[in-house]
Amino acid sequence: MEVLDTLYNEVVGFLGISQAWEILQSGNYSTFKTYDGVVSLIYPIIPLLLILELILGLIYKKPDTKVYKINFLIYIFNRFIGRFIAIAMITICIGLFQKYAPFQTEMTWYWFVYAYIIWEFAHFLYHYWGHKVRLFWCLHSTHHAPENMNLSVTHAHFFLEAPYADTIRTTVCILLGVQPELLFLIMFIDGTYGAFIHIGENVIKDARFGPLNKIMLTPSHHRVHHARNPLYMDTNFCNLLNIWDHVFGTYQEEEKEVKIEYGITREMDSGNFMDVYFGEFVALFRDVIKAPGIKNKMLYIFMPPGWSHIGDHKTSKVTRAAYFKDNPTYITQNKWKLTKNLKSEV
């Protein structure tokens, strides 16, 4: 019975319906008009869309079985590990850094706009470093390994990536005056939308969303972010507001002529859990062992993926610069930002 209860609780927890179910059981339906009630109705949306996406995939005969299988295993593994490792980095960072903030925001619309822009900046930093520092890429690469995009990719994360992300995002927001209550509200909104932008073509074929594609980050932008095509590599790091991608020159729209190829550039078996989850750590370990001298060993850890001590660099900047040289059609107004610091990276 205990096993069945555990299984039941896991299913209910995954579907996000526990809070709504408790309200229904209480009979106090007016609770749905409160903040907690609204949240309880929003939580199940992404899991239910995931199930719909899987069903439509079977109907369209595009099931992405391998992707769902591996991401399901990752979800189960992370849930198991999470029972033994609980790292409350958000709480720790708030306690450590809030006293150093020069001011505190309030729950008003204008402070909400300020806080969200700061949150996006913090998210940009964590996400950018996750692609540009090889050790952090080892944490993040699991999320990029799937060779198709669907909502199950939301659950494809190395278990230590969340503490890394929470440390950076919370620290930046708290130091810049975002009060915890406002931070938690933004995290809920951002987390929900951050899951939605992984929606696959089985549900939404063209995810540009018309004019919205110009003013916010759409699932189309995030599909570009997950691509390994040279044109698309290491772009669109934001989550909802793509303001910082425009500022730092990492913005890239989906081009109809360039079909997205999902996955990572390393040769791997995307149907192998161990390779998806630990493969980048193994590759980094091998490079560190083979590298001559302490300096080169350290550089492999902290330089971007693709850096080589012999100078045969295959970083995203090198790859993109070569692509732009051969395909001048796709040279954008931000190309100079992408190639300006090439020497400093390689």
Q: Would you give an account of this structure?
A:
This protein has helices at 2-15, 18-26, 35-42, 45-59, 65-82, 89-97, 109-132, 134-144, 161-175, 180-196, 212-215, 219-225, 243-248, 273-290, 293-302, 316-326, 335-339, 342-345. With 346 residues, it is mainly alpha-helical. It has a domain at 44-248. Helix 6 packs parallel to helix 9 (161-175), helix 7 (109-132) packs across helix 8 and helix 7 (109-132) packs across helix 9 (161-175). The longest helix is centred in the middle third of the chain and has 24 residues, at 109-132. It is globular, with a radius of gyration of 21 Å. Mean pLDDT is 86; it is low at 335-346.
Give the structure's gist in a few sentences.
The chain is 59% helix and 0% strand.
Q: Termini, distance in Å?
A: 58 Å
- What class, by secondary structure content? mainly alpha
Element string (H = helix, E = strand): HHHHHHHHHHHHHHHHHH
Content of β-strand: under 5%
Bulk shape? globular
Overall strand count: 0
Number of helices: 18
- Which blocks of ≥5 consecutive residues have pLDDT under 50? 335-346
Helical residue percent? 55-70%
pLDDT averaged residue by residue: 86
Annotate the secondary structure layout.
Blueprint: H1 2-15, H2 18-26, H3 35-42, H4 45-59, H5 65-82, H6 89-97, H7 109-132, H8 134-144, H9 161-175, H10 180-196, H11 212-215, H12 219-225, H13 243-248, H14 273-290, H15 293-302, H16 316-326, H17 335-339, H18 342-345
Key structural traits:
globular; 346 residues; mainly alpha; disordered C terminus; 0% strand; single chain
